Amino acid sequence: MELRVLQSHRWVARQADWTAAAIAGFGAGGILMLMELIWATVQGGDRWLTTRMVAAMVMGWEVLQTSGYDLAVVIAALAVHYILGITFAMMLAAIIAPFQLDSSLGLVTLVGAAFGVLLYVLNFYGMSGAFTWFADLRGWATFGAHVVFGACCAMFYRMLERPEKRE
Asked: Which of 11, 31, 58, 115 is deepest in the core (most CB within 10 A)?
């Protein structure tokens, strides 16, 4: 019979593994983009609408007046999406590491999912003040996609984290 010791999740001076966080954010961001594209296709709407909405953050709201595929819009949306995904992953890692929330896959996944909820609220209720067009994306599908983003990001971080960084 194996005796398990409970781990304290009090703050300790421990640096996150920033490389693992960046890769985790890139991977989870890709999953989020695929989910958005699949959902838009299943719904039968304009599958490039979300792409234009994200690109409009840097290209201006005029991009929202166009339709269909546009390579420049896709490139801008990819850049914004991946930069935000990596940034959010680094924020998540900065929470996970010092509180040792990566002690188990279940815990880190739960923390990541909760972080995804926080991101959804921040993005679609807070940031929609500056980027009003994002209010149209509020809903269960977008909420679920952000929960999946957070959970995947945290799981990827734990899997990629170097053992010496976890100690």
From this structure: 115
Residues 154 and 92: beta-carbon distance below 8 Å: yes
**Count of C-beta atoms within a 10 Å radius of residue 165:** 17
Helix (H, G, I), strand (E, B) or coil at 94: helix
Q: Angle at the Cα of 146 (from 99 to 33), degrees rounded to 5?
A: 125
8 Å CB contact between 55 and 73: yes
Compute the radius of gyration of the chain from its Cα atoms: 18
Q: What is the pLDDT of residue 136?
A: 87
Output the pTM of the full model: 0.85
Asked whether residue 50 carries a pLDDT value surpassing 60, the answer given is yes
Separation between Cα atoms, residue 88 and residue 118, nearest integer Å: 11
b/e string for 43-58 if b means 16 or more Cβ within 10 A? eeeebbbbbbbbbbbe
Q: Which of 98, 90, 82 is nearest to 157 (CA)?
A: 90
Q: Are 28 and 147 in contact (CB under 8 A)?
A: no
